[in-house]
Write a structure and sequence with these properties.
mainly beta, 6-stranded antiparallel beta sheet, 5-stranded antiparallel beta sheet, 1% helix, 44% strand, globular
């Protein structure tokens, strides 16, 4: 059974701030002032999605790709023209996007319950769709290491209904996987997190950060040491939302600060207006800044010619803000 492909989503009104510094960029600690550009404002680049996710910058093409999961499409924003066009539709309800060391697109597909690579001729190669004879759940977020290893999270969001995939039985526990860049072998590196979500490496790739999106009583980000053989060790709590804040997709800048998509986890009484946007933590996990958006932010990435523009996929819209730090080269 296939439901009809949904059309465009709501277009959210947005007015760029006329005053500098942009009041939407809030300092939670004085140290964030060094990362804020005084004369830069949050801009809305596009709107009309139903659930925007997985942004990925393509410097060689001067464009950004991101997923609109319920609308079953990947969209393309052109930096030179500002035009938005479909890149792939249907997309198998793709979610997280990344690039491998050869620049090829990697995609987490909910409907296919798989991770794919787009070849130069446009064909798709399946990199992972099962482990130990059982199907994956719905690969969610993805990142590629400098050595070519590909890491992704696999919660069950895409098999819980028709909105982000299709209903199906869960065959594997929620887990985090690594695809060996040399052999293509799939390894389960962690299966003790409840709905692992966003993930990102520290600038030196010695630490992997993973969001646990069903942790109780609040969402958490865990830090792991990455061993030379690709195993994870030394699990420790890095960030606790300590309330209704919904940590989601994450990115790390060149200084080791962690930028997280943020919003309300939906609990009764949560003040979503104060939570929606991006929460910034320093390398020790201390919250230092918040970028307020009119919508909950699901995921984000650094891009632009100097890798200092933050792109934010937030519910119905795509936003951007230039900042005074580059994204981590990792």
């Amino acid at each position: 059974m296939h439901l009809p492909l949904p059309g465009d989503g709501p277009h959210i009104p947005f007015q760029t701030a006329a005053r500098y510094p942009d009041p939407a960029v809030e300092l939670l600690h004085p140290s964030f002032a060094a990362l804020r550009l005084y004369s830069a404002s949050v801009e809305q680049l596009a709107s009309g999605c139903r659930w925007a996710e997985g942004p990925q910058w393509f410097a060689d093409h001067g464009c950004l790709l991101w997923s609109d999961i319920p609308n079953n499409r990947i969209l393309r924003w052109d930096a030179a023209t500002g035009n938005v066009t479909p890149f792939r539709q249907p997309s198998n309800h793709a979610n997280g996007l990344a690039r491998d060391r050869q620049g090829r697109l990697l995609a987490c597909e909910h409907l296919g319950r798989r991770v794919t690579r787009t070849e130069p001729d446009g064909t798709l190669t399946v990199l992972a769709d099962q482990f130990d004879g059982a199907r994956l759940n719905s690969p969610n977020d993805i990142v590629c290491q400098r050595n070519g290893d590909i890491w992704f999270t696999d919660p069950s969001f895409g098999i819980q209904g028709w909105w982000e995939g299709a209903p199906a039985a869960q065959e594997r526990p929620h887990a985090v996987y690594r695809i060996d860049g040399q052999t293509g072998t799939l390894h389960c590196v962690a299966d003790d997190l409840d709905a692992p979500n966003g993930l990102a490496f520290s600038p030196d790739e010695r630490v992997l950060y993973i969001v646990e999106s069903r942790a109780t009583p609040s969402r958490k980000i865990w830090a792991y040491d990455v061993a030379a053989d690709g195993t994870l060790r030394g699990k420790r709590l890095h960030i606790d939302a300590d309330g209704a804040g919904a940590l989601d997709g994450i990115a790390v800048d060149a200084l080791g600060n962690l930028w997280a998509g943020f919003g309300s986890d939906g609990r009764p009484g949560a003040a979503a207006d104060g939570l929606d946007g991006v929460r910034v933590h320093d390398r020790d996990g201390r919250p230092i800044g918040h970028i307020h958006l009119p919508e909950r932010c699901a995921n984000l990435c650094f891009g632009g010619p100097h890798r200092n523009r933050l792109f934010m996929a937030a519910s119905h819209s795509l936003y951007a803000l230039s900042v005074n730090v580059q994204g981590s080269a990792a």
